[in-house]
Amino acid sequence: MEPFRFHVFVCDQQKPEGVPCCAARGSGQVLEALRRDVAARGLADEVQVTACGSLGLCEHGPNLIVYPEGIWYSGVTPADVPEIVRAHFQQDTPVERLARTDPAHLRAEILNNREKMFAAHRAREAAGILPDDLNESIRGFQASRAILTALELDLFTAVGDGAGAMEAAARLDTDPRATEMLLNALASLRLLVKREGIFHNSPAAARYFTEGSRDNARPALLHTAHLWERWSTLTGCVRTGTAARDEIAGRGQDWTEAFIAAMHRNAAERAPLVVRAVGAGSIRRMLDVGGGSGAYSIAFAQANPALRADILDLATVEPIARRHIQEAGVAGRVQVRAGDLRSDRLGEAYDLVLISAICHMLSPAENLDLLRRCHEALAPAGRVVIQDFILEADKTAPRFAALFALNMLVGTRGGSSYSEPEYAAWLGEAGFREIHHARLPGITGLMIGSRI
Ligand SMILES: C[S@@+](CC[C@H](N)C(=O)[O-])C[C@H]1O[C@@H](n2cnc3c(N)ncnc32)[C@H](O)[C@@H]1O
């Protein structure tokens, strides 16, 4: 049974450089044009568009198939899309000039291509050539570095509504030859589009990387650029067992601003999930240990007008948190105090102590010590809630948490990602009961314990 009047499968397979494939021949732009045109003509609920892997006609792409008829189109360009949508989907008349009308010929071509592909695989296998996906992982830093450099230079803002290489270089005060190389590389990554020598931002680059866009993530992404230097020391860190330099304290204000901006951006997605999982209704006083921008305290305060929150963080972060609290309109109920979460007494009689994205920067002994002080700071029925990247017991999954352990290795003296059994053991030793793991959608989870 077909749930849609038409179902279009567009091949978007990316093959290794130099091998013909639909992606290299512009299937991304065809998909974009198809989705746009189908929506613009009010057909989105009747025509389902799905990107798919190889259809076996790689030399003639972009290829697409339309069901229920099973019409194959080859060599489709974005300029052909309005005709396909109008003639085929609105007037039920397939576009003959693009349709492959001889099934026997089509089948022979696909089988021939399949045999060539198997032969190429066998030859590579026999020659012991590194598999493409492994190669991609190893060279992945090149694309990442190109994007991070563009973000550091604020290149996407400089490209604006369109710029040639010379113009972009003049706006950025960079070398024209090198700037052109970077612009071309970014176009190969589909973050820019080059038309007649002029570079334009892709929709994603314009939305997420340019000054003035509501969703500009650049201030937060600069934190990732800052991590680059640390990750370059990984080999040495594995040899010595710890970061070459100390952690957050002592870093410049630019570093801190980008770091807290990154945390604030993450919190926009995570805070509503945490508030929902923990519940704000019964909480009168909460402590947010290492509260950063204040995003979590603000979310709890907004969920419960009777709730008051104290944020403990470094003196350099205090003004940033104040700014966010002021903007959120909860200044009367959310306070910030400068202190050291590694050694300070944390206070008393709190209903909730939140420790979000903190435990990973501490060693096991420091976490146990922190949890003991949290226990002291809670009212009798109070709860401690840890939010972090929680590893499975054997520590090899989830992948994000396993890789994040290395991020802590290169950036802290004793931090790591920790497993559910490790958190449970520290919580138990610190005196907590009713210890449990509350799973959240996405990359973080909660470990919760009660002081009974
Ligand atoms: C990864 S961020 C987490 C921020 C916030 N809890 C969140 O989840 O978005 C770590 C926070 O701990 C703070 N921090 C680091 N060392 C600290 C210390 N010794 N005392 C107090 N705060 C500290 C940092 O300034 C930063 O705000």
Written description of the protein model:
- The strands form 4 sheets. The chain has a 7-stranded mixed β-sheet with strand order 9-8-7-10-11-15-14, with helices on both faces. It has a 4-stranded mixed β-sheet with strand order 2-1-3-4, covered by helices on one side.
- The N and C termini lie far apart (57 Å).
- The protein has helices at 27-40, 81-90, 103-127, 132-153, 155-159, 165-172, 176-188, 203-209, 218-231, 234-240, 253-278, 295-303, 318-328, 364-377, 399-411, 420-429; strands at residues 6-11, 47-52, 64-67, 71-73, 192-195, 198-201, 285-289, 308-313, 334-338, 350-356, 378-388, 390-391, 418-419, 433-439, 445-450.
- Helix 9 (218-231) packs across helix 11.
- With 452 residues, the chain is α/β, with parallel strands linked by helices.
- The chain has 3 domains: 6-125, Glutaredoxin (3-Layer(aba) Sandwich); 132-216, Winged helix-like DNA-binding domain superfamily/Winged helix DNA-binding domain (Arc Repressor Mutant, subunit A, Orthogonal Bundle); 253-450, 3-Layer(aba) Sandwich (Rossmann fold).
- Strand 14 and strand 15 form a beta hairpin.
- The chain has 16 helices and 15 strands.
- Residues 248, 263, 267, 290-292, 295, 312-314, 317, 340-342, 356-358 line the site of S-adenosylmethionine.
